[in-house]
Amino acid sequence: MTMKFSIDQLRVFATAAKSDSFGAAALDLGISQPAVRKSISQLETALGVELFNRTRDKITLTGNGIALLSDTLNVLEKVEHFNAKLDFIKKAHS
Q1: Does residue 2 sit within a domain?
Q2: Which end of the chain, N or C, is less surrounded by CB atoms within 10 Å?
Q3: How far apart are the C-alpha atoms of 28 and 16, rounded to whole Å?
């Protein structure tokens, strides 16, 4: 099975889910607001579901976004664990 989304897109989703706007998420991530919007849009297209309700002033998670957030956080935690283990292995063999 080919992944249709990236770990970076999941990071953007998780950060935006904790925020009340894409602008706030952009500040937290150190990227532009258009980059956050594009990443979320591409992720939603890849998944085939909307993750956020958007108004002019704020964002809220849809039911689908709520349902996927916990798994997203688990995936990101596993990726961090993987990277830490990989760093340990590399240092042990250098």
Answers
A1: no
A2: N
A3: 9
In whole angstroms, give the CA distance from residue 87 to residue 36. Answer: 28
Amino acid at 4: K
Percentage, residues of the chain above pLDDT 90: 91
Q: What is the DSSP letter of 48?
A: T
In CATH, what number is assigned to the domain containing residue 55?
1.10.10.10
In the three-class reduction of DSSP (H, G, I as helix; E, B as strand; rest coil), residue 59 is classed as: strand
Residue spans of alpha helices (H) in the chain: 7-18, 22-29, 33-47, 63-92
Count of domains observed in the chain: 1
CB crowding 53-83: b at 16 or more within 10 Å, else e = eeeeeebebbeebeebbeebeeebeeeeeee
* Amino acid identity, position 79: V
